[in-house]
Amino acid sequence: MIRVLLTDDEAMVRAGVRAILASGGETEVVAEAGDGREAVELARAHRPDVALLDIRMPRLDGLAAAEEIVRTVPGTAVAMLTTFSEQAYVARALGGGATGFLLKSGDPYELIAGVRAVAGGAAFLSPKVARYVIDGLGGSDGRLGREAAARARVAELSPREREVLGLVGAGLSNPEIAARLHLVEGTVKAYVSAVLDRLGVRNRVQAAVVAYEAGMVE
């Protein structure tokens, strides 16, 4: 079972999300919080697989809480679940270490799939959010420079590390990469960690951006 910390300042919203997750049959909500500060405390206490956070909450907003959880509870993946899809929120969330960004207006399947993906070490963005990210990368200003810089960074990787990066960019989880490359999962984890370190990025989403800019994925 995937252990989830659910955080939203509206009890009715938490009840709805809990019901959707339960319908998938593979998640267990181990704790619920009504604000960001409580979310950080419960993440430290329960060490869930996934912390699912709303953005606008009292005491400490979800973006700040996400950064704190990423920093202090490294075994917990963080995903945002919100009605707010402004690019500034998306950029800060992903820059702060979140590997999922889901919209409450999305299909319930997206929620289940997103939690499963981030729990498995992959990244997941709701389609509308992914469109924002792609549009931002595709802007004409500085695009050629970013592409050249990304290709130069990727060139420093070993052939196997580049192969792993391409699969991370395609959204595959560690088990899926292991199956594709006929490696054990522990070896894949080591490769992913090495890739993140050598690229100087904090998480798989940022690595996927480098892979995209380098032309490694569509």
From TrEMBL:
InterPro entries cross-referenced by the UniProt entry: CheY-like_superfamily, NreC/VraR/RcsB-like_REC, Sig_transdc_resp-reg_C-effctor, Sig_transdc_resp-reg_receiver, Tscrpt_reg_LuxR_C, WalR-like
GO MF entries: DNA binding
PROSITE patterns: HTH_LUXR_1, HTH_LUXR_2, RESPONSE_REGULATORY
Annotated GO biological process: phosphorelay signal transduction system; regulation of DNA-templated transcription
Stretches assigned to the Response regulatory domain: 3-119
Keywords, ordered alphabetically: DNA-binding, Phosphoprotein, Transcription, Transcription regulation
Transmembrane segments: none
Xref: Pfam families: GerE, Response_reg
Domain of life: Bacteria
Keyword Transcription appears in the UniProt entry: yes
SMART domains associated with the record: HTH_LUXR (SM00421), REC (SM00448)
CDD domains, alphabetized: LuxR_C_like (cd06170), REC_NarL-like (cd17535)
UniProt-recorded name of the protein: LuxR family transcriptional regulator
